């Protein structure tokens, strides 16, 4: 049976910080500092950082040369799992800083994030799900597979970093310059495109917070979960990453 909560201390609240638009490198440094404080016990509760980034391409550990932008844009190398992706305005990014329950179950943690994002999509009348062998949140129909939510994480000293990105209403042309997540045979989409109406990041904030909190502290009850791949354990003790 799955554990009730993925968190080491589910009796403490998850503090939510809505940060607005934050430069990627600033957010990268901030989340690493907060994760270190959480691991040390200086920070005595879990956090969920919600924000948007200016247009930024980031490359995870498995990024290949062929994935890189064709438009000459700068790429930021990061310590999460996975390959290349894009962040920018209109995309809600979430960085949970969470001390995980022992023994660590990184796959369960990723699946709970997927469940949360699938729930949010349903609240906006968009049917999303998982694709076997591929992480993240997908829309699948006669038009093919389209990725709506990306997940890339790192766990160090039992605390999570990085997290998820939900395409709400970004400029989708930013993805044209890369092979998103290294997946060449599928597309990308947004919540607004799939719903066929205007949806803003502000519109989804409350739903995302509610869904993430519920997914972290309750059992995943939406059935069989597939699609978590590319688990890698770093040579650094106590560190793992998944995309």
Automatic annotation (TrEMBL):
<feature type="site" description="Lowers pKa of active site Cys">
    <location>
        <position position="147"/>
    </location>
</feature>
<dbReference type="InterPro" id="IPR004143">
    <property type="entry name" value="BPL_LPL_catalytic"/>
</dbReference>
<feature type="binding site">
    <location>
        <begin position="163"/>
        <end position="165"/>
    </location>
    <ligand>
        <name>substrate</name>
    </ligand>
</feature>
<feature type="binding site">
    <location>
        <begin position="80"/>
        <end position="87"/>
    </location>
    <ligand>
        <name>substrate</name>
    </ligand>
</feature>
<dbReference type="InterPro" id="IPR020605">
    <property type="entry name" value="Octanoyltransferase_CS"/>
</dbReference>
<dbReference type="GO" id="GO:0005737">
    <property type="term" value="C:cytoplasm"/>
</dbReference>
<keyword id="KW-0808">Transferase</keyword>
<protein>
    <recommendedName>
        <fullName>Octanoyltransferase</fullName>
        <ecNumber>2.3.1.181</ecNumber>
    </recommendedName>
</protein>
<comment type="pathway">
    <text>Protein modification; protein lipoylation via endogenous pathway; protein N(6)-(lipoyl)lysine from octanoyl-[acyl-carrier-protein]: step 1/2.</text>
</comment>
<keyword id="KW-0963">Cytoplasm</keyword>
<comment type="function">
    <text>Catalyzes the transfer of endogenously produced octanoic acid from octanoyl-acyl-carrier-protein onto the lipoyl domains of lipoate-dependent enzymes. Lipoyl-ACP can also act as a substrate although octanoyl-ACP is likely to be the physiological substrate.</text>
</comment>
<feature type="active site" description="Acyl-thioester intermediate">
    <location>
        <position position="181"/>
    </location>
</feature>
<dbReference type="GO" id="GO:0033819">
    <property type="term" value="F:lipoyl(octanoyl) transferase activity"/>
</dbReference>
<dbReference type="GO" id="GO:0009249">
    <property type="term" value="P:protein lipoylation"/>
</dbReference>
<feature type="domain" description="BPL/LPL catalytic">
    <location>
        <begin position="42"/>
        <end position="220"/>
    </location>
</feature>
<keyword id="KW-0012">Acyltransferase</keyword>
<comment type="similarity">
    <text>Belongs to the LipB family.</text>
</comment>
<dbReference type="InterPro" id="IPR045864">
    <property type="entry name" value="aa-tRNA-synth_II/BPL/LPL"/>
</dbReference>
<dbReference type="Pfam" id="PF21948">
    <property type="entry name" value="LplA-B_cat"/>
</dbReference>
<dbReference type="InterPro" id="IPR000544">
    <property type="entry name" value="Octanoyltransferase"/>
</dbReference>
């Amino acid at each position: 049976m799955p554990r009730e909560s993925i968190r080491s201390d589910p009796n403490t609240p998850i503090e939510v910080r809505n940060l607005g638009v934050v430069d990627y490198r600033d957010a990268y440094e901030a989340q690493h500092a907060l994760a270190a404080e959480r691991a040390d016990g200086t920070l005595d509760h879990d956090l969920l950082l919600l924000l948007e980034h200016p247009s930024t391409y980031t490359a995870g550990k498995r990024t290949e040369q062929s994935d890189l932008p064709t438009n000459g844009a700068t790429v930021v190398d990061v310590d999460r799992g996975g390959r290349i992706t894009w962040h920018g305005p209109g995309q809600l990014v979430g960085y949970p800083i969470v001390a995980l329950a022992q023994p660590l179950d990184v796959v369960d943690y990723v699946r709970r994030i997927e469940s949360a994002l699938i729930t949010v999509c349903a609240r906006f009348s968009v049917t999303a799900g998982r694709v076997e062998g591929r992480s993240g949140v997908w829309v699948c129909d006669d038009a093919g597979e389209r990725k709506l939510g990306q997940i890339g994480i790192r766990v160090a000293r039992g605390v999570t970093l990085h997290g998820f990105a939900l395409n709400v209403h970004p400029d989708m042309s930013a993805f044209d310059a890369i092979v998103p997540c290294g997946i060449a045979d599928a597309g990308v989409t947004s919540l607004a495109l799939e719903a066929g109406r205007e949806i803003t990041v502000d519109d989804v904030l409350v739903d995302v917070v509610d869904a993430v909190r519920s997914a972290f502290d309750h059992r995943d009850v939406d059935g069989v979960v597939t699609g978590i791949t590319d688990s890698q354990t770093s040579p650094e003790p106590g560190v793992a990453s998944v995309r």
